[in-house]
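Lest this sound abstract, we think one record worth quoting, the chain in one-letter code, the fold tokenised, each line plainly labelled:

>
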Amino acid sequence: MRKGVILLWAVFICIFAAGCAKTNEGTFCIGNNWIENASNGKVNGTAGFESATKNITFISDWVECKDVVQKYRVAGSKEWKNLTSEDYISNIDGLFLYTYDKPYYLKYRCFTEKYGWLEPVSSLENGEYDYAGLPGETIKDIDIEIWDHKGKVDDKYIVLYRIKTDRGWLDWRSSGQNTLTRQIVNDNRDLNAGGLSNVELRNVNGIEIRVFEKIDNGVVPDETAKIIDAPYIYQNFKYPNGCESVSAVMALNYWGIDITVDSFIDKYLSKGNTPIINGIGPDPDVVYCGDPRLQSGWGCNSPVIAKAIKKTVSPLKYEVNNTYGKTLVELCEQYIDKDIPVIIWATVGMVDSSNDSYYAEWVTENGKNIRYNRKLHCLLLVGYDKEYYFFNDPMKMHTNGTKYTGYKRTAVEKAYNILGKQSVVIIPK
């Protein structure tokens, strides 16, 4: 009897020990919040550990984002070198990250023994002084957050980062949500290497930074689909309210007309003042209201874009039609089926913005009453199938190389109707 009890206890202890060993595998640390911890002088990662056992499985819906420029500089050198996880580095005093033309950017900073946490910098800039660090001050730790044009994000984009010391790789850290970070770590087995705690300041001998984006499980066209392969341009960073100009340039580029969005805005787009709600403002049928490069910009209707496009093309080669009242079925039959993309006015995400709360009103200097839909959005119609219309939507970027976004026909028709059935087409002669 006694032997049996001892045997049972032995089995229990073995199971418990095995369970503890498993729990410690894959442990990672969530980076601290800058606002809460910037002034306490502590190195990020001293708290907030969470177990990530390997027996938890997830169906991965995240993809790694490539082409993030990563460079480092060694103290005493002016040369910037490409950063890879295989590099052995010492006395690093500068970290440079650059994310040009991405739907996200990184805010990052470093910790030095002499000055503590330095001010964060942005990966949107690539000037001589746009890096984290100070000449001659060895970096002891880093902290990175991921942002989009609206602010800090941790549900669609996540950055994972870690440093290597003389003892090996420390745990992965992230500004993302615990569950999402755990999912990425578990689904990408190469991320599980390392596991030392981040509790003390150490020499940095390596840095690894990985950015992930949640896969936009977009609509898969059916077998009847007709989709035009037109160029895609993302608007959000440089032209947060420039969907009309971006869509126009996508259409122009489709026809081989070499023009940039900046050139279109600066040379051809008629622009007016930013309107004052319930006050005085410009006519969106005549000019773009405000500045398309600013968050305070508003927008314009199809006559403004049609007029600007006509300035960019030869009338001997192209006809530019500003049309009202055509149904989406008619647009597809008359243009999409002939491989002619169509610029149309609808709403952001095809939301139903018919309620009065979505409108802003002002009066022009000539006394015209303007009722402007705050959800106005301009897109390039490139295709359709039985259930969806497909657009090169300048507000939607896909990491898998897909240019188009599918929206339900009923939602598109309603949004298109709300904006007055406006469209512009460029037709070769």
Q: What stands out?
A: The helical segments are 2-24, 34-37, 178-187, 243-254, 261-268, 302-312, 328-334, 409-418. The chain has a mean pLDDT of 83. DSSP finds eight helices and 27 strands in the chain.
